[in-house]
Input
Amino acid sequence: MKSNQGVRQKWIEAAYSEFSLSGPDFSLKALSEKSKLPRASLYYHFASKEELLEELLFLHQENINKYHSHIEENVKSLIPDLYKAVYSHKEGILFHRQLLLHPEKDEFYTLYRSANEKSFAILLPHIKRLFDSSGSNEEFIQFYHTLTDAWYIRLDPNNFSVESMIALAMKIMENTLGLFSGSISPKNN
Output
């Protein structure tokens, strides 16, 4: 029984990794090669690819919870602390990106958005310290979602470093601030 659980877990871990790179349309053949398990054994552990995807969403929720704990404990300032935390959760961040890139599945977009809402709640004090806080919380929420969605869309999985992620965020912030009528702007130190 324990051996079967180990094989099942190996399928889930390989599928999580494959989803992170390729999204939900990952190849079962590539998954079999990555896991070094015979493809036929996948159906011993999962009735369908959809059932495997459900398990991946459950695993991702667990990873989101770990990420949120990490940022609560370690982010003291938005830049660079947040991006150091993101870097330490690379595979989960890339999985999360795939959820945004495939919003046609309601459960993907729902999980993406709810995780971001929780992140925002944790990061709001840091965001307000970085910006002139004359904007309302609603304006900050709108700004955060615009920035976050653009960041995930433009994130390059092949250039995943703390520095590249900060540079991308700064570029998006510069381009996005004009959308908010001057009510949210960087503080002048």
Summary: DSSP finds nine helices and no strands in the chain. The CA atoms of residues 66 and 89 lie 9 Å apart.
